[in-house]
Design a protein that fits this description.
Distance between the termini: 26 Å
Radius of gyration: 14 Å
Shape: elongated
Structural class: mainly alpha
Order of helices and strands: HHHHH
Strand content: under 5%
Largest sheet: none
Helix content: over 70%
Length: 108
């Protein structure tokens, strides 16, 4: 399998994890934010992989963090705790999304 498919596959897997968390989450606001992030990530799957020049290992790390996020949210007692758990991950992904949307591709 080519690296393109693997990296893109991981982005799609992250989006699927977010959708599942939203469905199972007892915190509607956090779930809605995850679903919105997934909706924003999915159309950018190939661009996220190529334009940020992320390797498959980087995408594996992000996917494993998304998987851990589900169990951390389940352990939370309040919406604020769930938000606090998700915030670093949100910030990291939003920074990457912004980078992809504003990056210019240079042909050499």
């Amino acid at each position: 399998m080519s690296d393109e498919k693997m990296g893109t596959h991981y982005v799609r897997e992250i989006c699927q994890i977010f959708k599942e968390i939203e469905e199972k989450s007892k915190f509607s606001d956090t779930g809605a934010k995850l679903a919105a992030l997934a909706d924003e990530l999915l159309p950018l799957a190939k661009k996220l992989y190529f334009k940020t020049q992320k390797g498959t290992e980087d995408m594996q790390e992000l996917t494993s963090q998304a998987g851990e996020l589900a169990s951390k949210i389940e352990a939370c007692q309040t919406e604020q705790e769930a938000e606090a758990v998700c915030q670093p991950y949100f910030d990291m992904l939003r920074k990457t999304i912004k980078h992809v949307k504003t990056m210019k591709v240079r042909m050499t």
